[in-house]
Structure formats: structure tokens, C-alpha cells
């Protein structure tokens, strides 16, 4: 097996395993830390896909900024662990009718997904093209694209960030916020 | 040989995990984390497709998705803080004032 295939399966297993543990945790602090591991594995996959800019942004912006914000809020609120008894009592999926209906739908979806994966894998596989990965990997090309073709969305993004900043300050303010 | 299909299958698995998290967990913060998992699954699809078709557009869109995710996390966590101040709970079942 080629080296990049080994790396792909390693990072893929890490990402899927960490994500499963994220939703399997009752303690939100562990969830956030595991999600950082999942994002690191995804950054490794981005490197394999010749996207070093996306990998670095993933680590700095996602793992470095957004996840630290989450961790900060979790620790600030001193969030209680999810209560298993409360889960049993109040979860909408815990009623027999909803559970049976959901199980049937999930089974159908699993059947359909496995059929699709089997069908796709037996067909001619679409190999990742070997043509000039350099043009995709170049940060200069990404920057040129952002400031020419995507100039308007880029400017709109700055307004979005401003609105989000003002909104976060207003919402989280004690006193005249939501009250 | 790793093909585009491998990446698409991985992305589908991550998205399914995120969706399951939204339905199964009863904690607003974990719901937001599940949404981040779903956003990242979509990012992986964009980058794999961009690599396949030798276009930078995939990575540009991932850049925008990350910006929107940052804004969403900031506003979402501010709402979580405000809700926690009112109800002393993070269980979404506790926030039923708008339920008819």
C-alpha cells in the first residue's frame, strides 16, 4: 500500500473515531477537546489533498480560535454534565412511536447508503487527477481568486463578521440584553 | 490508490455523525459542536472536489465557510450564555417559551 494511502486511512480513522467520541460524551469539555483532535486529523487530510493553506487555516482558525471560544464558554458556564436520567425522561426520541419510526427510517437510509457505496466502488473509480497540483496548492492563486472573482463575497464577509461581533456583544451583555 | 470516492465516503460518514449528534445529544453546546462537525465534512468535500478538478475555488469556498462558522460560533455561544442565565440549564427541552 502506498504511503499516502496509509496516511489517508490513519487520518480518516482518527477523524471518524474522534467525532464519534465527541457525540458519545456526556462531559462537554471532553467533547470540545476531542473535536480539536478531529479537526487536526482533517487538517492532515487537507495536506494530503495539496491544500496547505486550508490545513493551516483549519488549525489556526478552527482549532485555535473557534474551539478555544467553545472551551472558554464551557468553563465559564461551569456546564453540568448531561444527566442520563433526564435524557431518558425528556428526550423526544425516547417515546416508542418516534423510536420505531426513526429506526425504520435509519435502516432504510443505511440500506440505501451501503447500496450506493457498493455501486460506486465497483464502478470505474475516479482517481484523483495527477495534473499540476502546484496550481491548486499555491496560496498566491487562492489570494488572487479571493480578491478578483470572489471580491464581493469577501467584502460581504467583513460585514457579516461585524454583525456577528455586535450581535454577540449585545446578546451576552448583562442587563439590557435579552431581558 | 486513494480516489475521490474515498474522500466523499469519509465526508458522508462525518456528516452522518454530526447529524446523529444533533438528534441524540441534549446539550446546546454539544449541538453546536455537532454542527461544526457537519460544516467540516462539507469543507472536506469542497477541498477534495477542488483537487479533483484542479480549481482553487474549492479552497476559496472553504475559507468563506470557516468565516461563517466563526460568526455562527460567536453568536451561538452568546445566545447560549444568555439562555443559561435565564434557565440555569443547557437542555434544549428547557427552552419552551416559544413553543405553541
Care to describe what's here?
- The complex is a heterodimer of chains A (179) and B (100).
- Chain A contains eight helices and no strands.
- Chain A has helices spanning 3-24, 28-48, 52-77, 84-90, 96-122, 133-137, 139-147, 151-172.
- The N and C termini of chain B lie far apart (54 Å).
- With 100 residues, chain B is mainly alpha-helical.
- The mean pLDDT of chain B is 88.
- Chain B has one domain: Orthogonal Bundle (Helix Hairpins), CATH 1.10.287.
- Helix content of chain B is 77%, strand content 0%.
- Chain B has helices at 4-24, 28-52, 57-87.
- The longest helix of chain B has 31 residues, at 57-87.
- Classes of the chains: A mainly alpha (179), B mainly alpha (100).
- Chains A and B meet through helix 1, helix 2, helix 3, helix 4 and helix 5 of A and helix 1, helix 2 and helix 3 of B.
Task: List unreliable stretches of 5+ residues of chain B.
Answer: none
Main sheet of chain A? Answer: none
What's the CATH topology label of one domain in chain A?
A: Four Helix Bundle (Hemerythrin (Met), subunit A)
CATH level-3 fold name of chain B = Helix Hairpins
Query: What portion of the residues of chain B fall into strands of 2 or more residues?
Result: under 5%
Q: Could you give the count of β-strands of chain B? A: 0
- What structural class is derived from the secondary structure elements of chain A? mainly alpha
CA gyration radius of chain A, whole angstroms: 22 Å
Strand content of chain A: under 5%
N-end to C-end Cα span of chain B:
54 Å
- Cα shape of chain A: extended
The H-and-E topology of chain B, N to C, reads as: HHH
Which pair of protein chains has the largest interface, and what are the residue counts? A-B, 84 and 70 residues
Q: In whole angstroms, how far apart are the ends of chain A?
A: 61 Å
SS-based class of chain B: mainly alpha
Domains of chain B, number = 1
Enumerate how many helices of chain A there are, as a single number: 8
Shape of chain B: elongated
CATH architecture of one domain in chain A: Up-down Bundle
Name the CATH superfamily classification of one domain in chain A: NADH-ubiquinone/plastoquinone oxidoreductase chain 6, subunit NuoJ
Amino acid at each position: 500500500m502506498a504511503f499516502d494511502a496509509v496516511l489517508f486511512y490513519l487520518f480518516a480513522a482518527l477523524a471518524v473515531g474522534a467525532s464519534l467520541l465527541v457525540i458519545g460524551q456526556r462531559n462537554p469539555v471532553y467533547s470540545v477537546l476531542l473535536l480539536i483532535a478531529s479537526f487536526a486529523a482533517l487538517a492532515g487530510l487537507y495536506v494530503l489533498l495539496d491544500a496547505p493553506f486550508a490545513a493551516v487555516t483549519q488549525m489556526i482558525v478552527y482549532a485555535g480560535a473557534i474551539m478555544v471560544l467553545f472551551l472558554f464558554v464551557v468553563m465559564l458556564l461551569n456546564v453540568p454534565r448531561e444527566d442520563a436520567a433526564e435524557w431518558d425522561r425528556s428526550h423526544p426520541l425516547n417515546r416508542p412511536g418516534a423510536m420505531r419510526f426513526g429506526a425504520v427510517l435509519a435502516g432504510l437510509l443505511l440500506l440505501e447508503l451501503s447500496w450506493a457505496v457498493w455501486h460506486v466502488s465497483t464502478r470505474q473509480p475516479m482517481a484523483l487527477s495527477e495534473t499540476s497540483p502546484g496550481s491548486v496548492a499555491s496560496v498566491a492563486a487562492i489570494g488572487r481568486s479571493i480578491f478578483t472573482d470572489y471580491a464581493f463575497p469577501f467584502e460581504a464577509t467583513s460585514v457579516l463578521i461585524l454583525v456577528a461581533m455586535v450581535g454577540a456583544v449585545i446578546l451576552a451583555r448583562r442587563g439590557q440584553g435579552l431581558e | 490508490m486513494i480516489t475521490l470516492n474515498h474522500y466523499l465516503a469519509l465526508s458522508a460518514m462525518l456528516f452522518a455523525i454530526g447529524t446523529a449528534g444533533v438528534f441524540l445529544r441534549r446539550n446546546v453546546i454539544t449541538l453546536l459542536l455537532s454542527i461544526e462537525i457537519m460544516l467540516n465534512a462539507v469543507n472536506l468535500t469542497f477541498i477534495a472536489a477542488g483537487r479533483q478538478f484542479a480549481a482553487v475555488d474549492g479552497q476559496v469556498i472553504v475559507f468563506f465557510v470557516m468565516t461563517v462558522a466563526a460568526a455562527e460560533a460567536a453568536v451561538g455561544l452568546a445566545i447560549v450564555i444568555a439562555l443559561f442565565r435565564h434557565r440555569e440549564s443547557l437542555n434544549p427541552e428547557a427552552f419552551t417559551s416559544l413553543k405553541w
